[in-house]
Structure prediction request, 116 residues.
Amino acid sequence: MNIEELRDYCITKKGVTESFPFDEETLVFKVMNKMFLLTNINKELSMNVKCDPEKAIELREEYSSVLPGWHMNKKHWNTVNIDGSISDNQLKEWIDDSYDEVVRKMTKKMQAELLK
Prediction:
């Protein structure tokens, strides 16, 4: 997966916007104004994704490319180095999980608005 494929996959999800709220290098994807993925466009490709805390630990133990979230709450976020050691399908699954994790924490009203 490259940065274009990552971006294309993220923006197809319902209610997703992209922006550079922190600096000119950190591309942030949000669903209903809640972050679910961050990536740096000028460094080796990696992504920060939100994750169930127990699953986050399991993934770090299973994959050497999965680390505690860089500059994020390490309980809920993982940094995934996209170095070819993890399949695109697996990366997409983790993107989906991150998106779903954020949507699940939204209010019922926000969830209903997303489904419109």
Residues 56 and 116 are 31 Å apart (CA to CA). The chain has a mean pLDDT of 95.
